[in-house]
């Protein structure tokens, strides 16, 4: 957390996507960050966005992405552009010495991803993706339970899903269903979270095998609207994930270990902003007096999870800017693994659900 | 339900498995059924079981399965024998004119299943499998929600799992892990329920494609200890199932439709005997004020679900015995579909997760 004497990290918002509203508020709420600038492809759009989001007069308005890259009063950029544009603008941001908070999916594929990260490394800037739920204090509690060898034991299976019923207009016009914009569709946009959950529960070990499930739904351009996949690790650990633009909201994690069971009903975006819950069941076997009701746990958060994310990002940027620290490797590392699994599922979808081996990737 | 003047259906318990204790109590609690006899391979075992379960003096004790088949005071048999013995004893029961409540899995494969049902049809006896949860009044409420085109819309995906951590002794000695006894292992014993849930949510339409997920765990005899599978139907409906003897209790259903979401945390055996809950979320989209907390629904039951099952079985037997009705086709029909999916998953496991088509089966 920022100490009182640190200057807040000055973040520029690069693009006026819907999600940028949420993150703008998050930057406002994070104690160690401030909105310094906003850019769009036109000055008019940037102005409208600034006004609509109640930006202070001091926030600089840029009429082009190039312009915000050159702004000396911007430490870091939040990039909610369509995925296909990430590789260009994230690299240019890195080359301009800006730290990067980039929306997921980070890239169209891991090869693009690696180019972005190489640029960040070369220029000594921090990169983090916009997976908000990872920063909720509840997530730390989930981790505590999942890695408690007594209460949970060893993971055996995790099921995670994220679905969201979009409307007709979205299905026709949204960038998330356009092959040249967010060509990974529901897999990149929603599946990213479910995959991250599966990796999280496996201590970010990559699965050995990934296979898409039969029943993928594509739109007429071949973009994934709905799909599922199975993942498997050593020792019989398995995961199944599901994501869809065509089904009502589902944000479930169910994880079973040798000793315990974990359920989360709203892992992506908690039902309430100030607290989030999960349930656990401890060891019960065939001969016990069956199972007792799960225990509900509630975890409060002082600021919403997206503000926790901005706070963590700004903390890392602050370490670099104020203390000469090196960029942190944890977040890009788990981003890359998520991207690798996204790629593998996409490959399996394209190959009629063939098993894809991740060994050596 | 039995009318006051009907004599209770007289049920014989054929085999003294652990589950027979639960069902004995259920027969006791069902208003239209009574325990008439018990059989084991030795008179001693049958006597011990009768005493341990508080059977009344009037209950006849048989020292062989043949003997209970010939008992004229037995209308129906509850058969909790190892699966591999079902085909022999269920057919002999049918040929003796006894109605049959048989534990799941009904048979080792659908070919055996069909022989059993053919014998039942030939002899005009009722057959029903021991899937208790299907008879809980909660299940009727789940059905109401799942087939409500406003509140739930059309099903898109269902995830269902049943896991149960057994102990070392079970893994070595239990009939459920012996290829010559319950050779379908966790798939037949636990997966049966998860598959039934997937079929239930699809109005018992068979999936078109079934594929085992990578990561199946077999014991040294090749019996399944843990596995998952994906199922797909027309219109992009999908399901994933998971079953395991190696993970702590998990009994989850998560179903997402176009308009609604359903979660059940204890679909196989409710946490409480007298009531059971589930949660629903109604339509929420990308632009709504996100999602509201799920609504919890509670459904009371006067008698435990296994007694509801016996009551339904005895009702159908009563219709035949007292009113000359024909055996009911619903229960054997959904049993057969469950068995077909069990077979297909087993086949896919044996063929390294190859997709199995169920068209024409």
From TrEMBL, chains A, B:
Residues 146-262 form the GFO/IDH/MocA-like oxidoreductase domain. Residues 9-128 form the Gfo/Idh/MocA-like oxidoreductase N-terminal domain. It comes from the Eukaryota. SUPFAM superfamilies: Glyceraldehyde-3-phosphate dehydrogenase-like, C-terminal domain, NAD(P)-binding Rossmann-fold domains. Belongs to the Gfo/Idh/MocA family. This is Gfo/Idh/MocA-like oxidoreductase N-terminal domain-containing protein. It comes from Brassica cretica (Mustard).
